Automatic annotation (TrEMBL):
Domain of life: Bacteria
Upper lineage: Bacteria, Pseudomonadati, Bacteroidota, Cytophagia, Cytophagales
InterPro entries: Aminotrans_IV (IPR001544), Aminotrans_IV_CS (IPR018300), Aminotransferase-like (IPR036038), B_amino_transII (IPR005786), BCAT-like_C (IPR043132), BCAT-like_N (IPR043131), BCAT_family (IPR033939)
An annotated GO BP: L-valine biosynthetic process
Function, in words: Acts on leucine, isoleucine and valine.
Protein name, per record: Branched-chain-amino-acid aminotransferase
Enzyme nomenclature, EC number: 2.6.1.42
Length: 317
């Protein structure tokens, strides 16, 4: 826990996990100045605890803070806090292919004040929890063409609480229709893919990878960036481009689109079983160990677990 009081960061403390008291006029409860990151620590094959590209999460956290008009968090508090917590005896980092310790740094406005203005005080915290595989079965996702997640000029690229709050209702409606997740489309025309609920999205068409290019409406995923690099290292062609819904639906129908998968810290690489569009479900071929998503997932896991060489300097010990 570290508090920023009128722009001055106080000395961080490690406290036992438990409830915290809050004032009913706490600014973040009313106006939503609240941001977070999702990261993981792994136990590698040499029994060392490592993080994967944590500096990228640190950078993104302060980008989110800037957009939400919040205090910038110093590196020694964000990175130093993570390292200190991972050194604790009870920071249990499980081993095994799909297991990790999920790390959740977050920050909220801690002024006790009811006027609408940026808070002068912020509380930064990190909590941690062991995590296993996110989806037991490949999710069936719905292409969302009514609600929007993010519009240009908005806060889509920030990892702020409000983005997730706004997506709960459309996600609930999709779940009532039998879908696990949403695939968001652009706010203006609903014809281009953006990203999914907690992941960026990739398509395999004619054996090549395509993914929507990042913009102010998409969270710049660290997994997305890593997979693009791993895929290129492995000789796949990858393009970041506009990805039109109609091209993907046509491609599933004519067999040129063979895989659609999500990429994110929590889900790692998650192939979709089917995508729903305007009341129809378009079923994707089953995944096997030669599928592009399986090859990329293994590539990513092997770097994180120390099975293959860390040629890009991604593993942080
Ligand atoms: N988009 C959204 C909306 C997310 O919540 C996440 C998870 N952080 C991602 C994409 C993937 O980002 P990353 O690979 O950095 O976890």
């Amino acid at each position: 826990v570290a508090d920023c009081v009128n722009g001055e960061w106080q000395t961080p403390e490690i406290l036992p996990y438990g409830d915290i008291a809050y004032n009913p006029a706490l600014a973040s409860l009313h106006y939503g100045q609240s941001i977070f990151e999702g990261m993981k620590a792994f136990r590698n094959v040499d029994d060392e605890v490592v993080m994967f590209r944590p500096e990228e999460n640190f950078k993104r956290f302060n980008i989110s803070a800037e957009r939400m008009c919040m205090a910038q968090v110093p590196e020694e508090i964000f990175m130093g806090g993570l390292q200190k917590l991972l050194e604790l005896d009870n920071a249990w980092v499980p081993d095994g292919e799909n297991n990790s310790l999920y790390l959740r740094p977050f920050m909220f406005a801690s002024d006790v004040y009811l006027g609408v203005r940026p808070s002068f005080n912020y509380r930064f915290m990190i909590i941690m929890s062991p995590a296993g595989q996110y989806y037991a079965n490949p999710p069936k996702v719905k292409i969302e063409t009514q609600f929007i997640r993010a519009a240009e000029g908005g806060v889509g690229y920030a990892k702020c609480a409000g983005n997730y709050a706004a997506s709960l209702y459309p996600a609930k409606l999709a779940q009532e229709q039998g879908y696990t997740q949403l695939l968001w489309t652009d706010a203006k025309t609903h014809t281009k893919f953006e990203e999914s609920g907690t992941m960026n999205v990739f398509f395999v068409k004619d054996g090549k990878l395509i993914t929507p290019k990042t913009s102010t409406t998409i969270l710049k995923g660290i997994t997305r960036d890593s997979l693009i690099t791993i895929a290129r290292d492995k000789g796949y062609e990858v393009t970041e481009q506009d990805v039109f819904v109609k091209d993907i639906i046509e491609g599933i129908k004519d067999g040129s689109v063979t895989e659609v998968f999500g990429a994110g810290t929590a889900v790692v690489v998650s192939p979709f079983s089917a995508i729903g569009y305007e009341g129809e479900d378009y079923v994707l071929p089953e995944i096997n160990s030669d599928s592009v998503s399986s090859v990329l997932k293994k590539g990513l896991n092997d770097v994180r677990k120390g099975i293959s060489a860390d040629t890009h300097g991604w593993v942080y010990k």
